[in-house]
Specification:
Blueprint lengths: L2 E5 L2 E4 L4 E8 L7 E7 L6 E7 L3 E4 L7 E6 L2 E6 L8 E9 L5 E4 L3 E6 L1
Length: about 120
């Protein structure tokens, strides 16, 4: 059974930092693209960052230079610095593979709230 368990969300003041973690089980972590998405109220779910392999990363323009995605063993992290109120959203972990065997799994989400 595949599980993606997020942790690390919370309330922080603007300019502060948080680190999100996503522990994955039931998948071959090394062959998965691991990503973080976020969804604010009334908005669609958007990609924040993803990582394929040990170091191939991709970031949304709005977080470049502030957020860093990394992975270690079976966990993917999102270090978020210089947080802004517009970063407030539910953050979801995603495990995706486009090649066979294809899959697309989601975590339950963790709330990040940035106060001004």
């Amino acid at each position: 059974q595949v599980q993606l368990v997020e942790s690390g969300g919370g309330l922080v003041q603007a300019g502060g930092s948080l680190r999100l973690s996503c522990a994955a089980s039931g998948i071959s972590f090394s062959i998965s693209t691991m990503g973080w998405y976020r969804q604010a109220p009334g908005k669609q779910r958007d990609l924040v960052a993803n990582i394929t392999g040990p170091e191939s990363t991709n970031y949304a323009d709005s977080v470049k230079g502030r957020f860093t995605i990394s992975r270690d063993k079976n966990t993917v992290y999102l270090q978020m610095n210089s947080l802004k109120p517009e970063d407030t959203a539910v953050y979801y972990c995603n495990a995706n593979r486009q090649l066979l065997p294809r899959y697309d799994y989601w975590g339950q989400g963790t709330q990040v709230t940035v106060s001004s």
